[in-house]
Specification:
- Belongs to the protein kinase superfamily. Tyr protein kinase family.
- Residues 130-221 form the SH2 domain.
- The strands form 6 sheets. Strands 10, 11, 12, 13, 14 and 15 form a 6-stranded mixed β-sheet that branches. A 5-stranded antiparallel β-sheet has the order 8-7-6-5-9, with no helix packed on it. The chain has a 5-stranded antiparallel β-sheet with strand order 16-17-18-20-19, covered by helices on one side.
- It has helices at residues 9-19, 137-144, 200-209, 225-229, 278-289, 321-326, 328-331, 335-354, 388-392, 406-411, 416-431, 443-451, 464-473, 484-499, and strands at 28-29, 35-36, 47-49, 52-54, 66-69, 88-95, 98-103, 110-114, 118-120, 131-133, 153-158, 166-172, 175-183, 189-190, 219-220, 240-249, 252-259, 264-271, 299-303, 309-314, 319-320, 367-369, 375-377.
- 27% of the residues lie in helices and 22% in strands.
- β3 (47-49) and β4 (52-54) form a beta hairpin.
- The longest helix has 20 residues, at 335-354.
- By secondary structure, it is an alpha+beta fold.
- The chain is built from 14 helices and 23 strands.
- The protein folds into 4 domains: 66-120, Roll (SH3 type barrels), CATH 2.30.30.40; 125-229, SHC Adaptor Protein (2-Layer Sandwich); 237-314, Phosphorylase Kinase, domain 1, CATH 3.30.200.20; 319-499, Orthogonal Bundle (Transferase(Phosphotransferase), domain 1), CATH 1.10.510.10.
Length: 505
């Protein structure tokens, strides 16, 4: 070792194996369906299982989060960036007490700004009348061609081929035209690459005032519930045939079923009618149906008349993350695979965070796994349609104490930040390959331990930087816990470094 330089390959390999002892890069297929190894990796190996090789894709290039300057800041050196209050920025990375940011308008300069001078901007377009979310091209055309609309009517919807892009659908001369809204590498929105906008709202406002698309954008589409929903949300119970019980949770059983009229397999969560808040049930589930994100389980239908209540969702091939982790396939997952899965969960939770929706029961049992390690958050918002007496009963085991933040378990102060605490416990479940948190302790003992400052120990084979993220999630003061956007970004960054086999020395 004394004669080696810091940059020689044997030393770097030894350091790599110390930092990531269980990582083996999974080969990925190219476009010709031949397996190729990452050229940056010297030794690569597939994980072979009975069901086939487990592979994870290369890190995707996702748009940078949009920030705004809170105050004026005058650069004091060439490394710093002068900004005005309200300037739209993309933050490239954090550097101590500063962030490296790039302007999204004007000069497009980049430089350092004090971190407390910028704030994350949430997407506000969901509040606009023209935003219709996750409807497809056929639905958009049917809506716009309805008699209540006229030429100049338009709507914006999520792109069918790219979940982080959008489409403008507009009516002109009795026809509907569609225009794709793309995202640049710094997160700006554009239809034509000659002009881009920091927000979706700014883009729509511009084209309303400047009809350069060739069709006018005058009035948002008149929303008609009958056409917008296309089919009734409430479905007859007779349409569903229960096949196989998949599991049981705090609030009911989960079954694999056949939706006979649609001829497709679905998952059904059953609930006792007496446990639901009847006056809020339909309204709440309708609200949940409007949530669309690739990392959330899609709600398809419900049967609220009679016993038991059915909540019908898409079916995921591998079942719950809890059961998957304990399976033979789950036990051979490496840290790389688990971090990739954790990043997806954080992405889905960030979407809920933006909409102030609190999950209240985030755990491995409520994450569903599909092919290619796709993970989706399930049961979001379900706790809100369950009677409080069922959820909060102090002598009941209904409340998931081991996953619940102290302020929520003791005082029922549920928030996005209590969900962040639960996410830390979920990471523990994943990195320990399915171990029960606080194994052998009663709920009371768990609360007593947490009150004394105790936290779950670092699981065997868990990288230290992932354990640090867990500890951040378990900050005693809720405001000091990270956001889900920050968690998603951190996990994405770590995963990319593993994938391309680059480490910070």
């Amino acid at each position: 070792m004394e004669s080696c330089c810091r940059s020689c390959m044997p030393c770097l390999n030894r350091l790599w194996n110390w930092v990531w002892p269980d990582f083996r890069y999974p080969n990925v297929p190219n476009n010709n369906n031949h397996v190729i190894a990452n050229p940056a990796v010297v030794h690569s190996a597939e994980i072979r299982t009975v069901s086939g090789d487990i592979r994870v894709p290369s890190p995707k290039k996702r748009p940078v989060q949009l920030y705004a300057a809170l105050f004026d800041f005058q650069a004091r050196s060439d490394d710093e960036l002068t900004v005005k209050e309200g300037d739209k920025l993309s933050v490239i990375e954090k550097r101590g007490e500063y962030v490296l940011a790039k302007k999204l308008t004007g000069s497009l300069e980049s430089g350092l700004i004090p971190a407390n001078y910028v704030a994350l901007l949430q997407d506000e377009f969901a509040k606009h009348k023209w935003y219709y979310g996750n409807i497809n091209r056929v639905k958009a055309e049917k809506l716009l061609l309805a008699s209540q609309n006229k030429d100049g009517s338009f709507l914006v919807r999520i792109s069918e081929s790219h979940s982080d892009e959008y489409t403008i659908s507009a009516r002109s001369e009795g026809k509907v035209y569609h225009f794709r809204i793309q995202r640049s590498s710094i997160g700006a929105y554009f239809v034509s690459d000659k002009i881009s906008f920091a927000t979706l709202g700014e883009l729509i406002s511009y084209y309303q005032k400047n009809p350069r698309l060739g069709v006018p954008l005058e009035e948002p589409c008149a929303q008609q519930r009958e056409l917008f929903d296309m089919e009734p949300w409430e479905r007859p119970r007779e349409e569903f045939r229960l096949h196989k019980k998949l599991g049981e949770g705090h609030f009911g059983e989960v079954w694999e079923a056949l939706w006979t009229t649609e001829n497709k397999k679905v998952a059904i969560k059953t609930l006792k009618q007496e446990d639901t808040k009847q006056d809020e049930f339909v309204k709440e589930v309708q609200a949940l149906k409007s949530l669309h994100h690739p990392k959330l389980i899609q709600l398809l239908a419900m049967c609220s008349r009679g016993e038991p209540v059915y909540i019908v969702t898409e079916l995921m091939s591998k079942g719950s993350l809890k059961s998957y982790l304990s399976s033979a396939e789950g036990q051979v997952l490496t840290s790389a695979h688990l971090i990739y899965m954790g990043s997806q969960i954080a992405e889905g939770m960030a979407y809920l965070e933006d909409r102030n929706i609190v999950h209240r029961d985030l755990a491995a049992r409520n994450i569903l796994v599909g092919d290619d390690l796709v993970c989706k958050v399930a049961d979001f918002g379900l706790a809100r349609i369950i009677k409080d007496s069922v959820y909060r009963a102090s002598k009941s085991t209904k409340i998931p104490v081991r996953w619940t933040a102290p302020e929520a378990a003791i005082y029922q102060h549920f928030s996005v930040k209590s969900d962040v605490w639960s996410f830390g416990v979920l990471l523990y479940e994943m990195m320990s390959r399915g171990k029960m948190p606080y194994e052998g302790k009663s709920n009371k003992e768990v609360l007593d331990l947490l009150s004394s400052g105790f936290r779950l120990p670092c699981p065997t084979r868990c990288p230290q930087n992932i354990y640090r993220i867990m500890m951040d999630c378990w900050a005693a003061e809720p405001s000091k816990r990270p956001s889900f956007h920050a968690l998603h970004s951190q996990l994405d960054t770590i995963y990319a470094r593993i994938y391309f086999k680059t480490i910070e020395v």
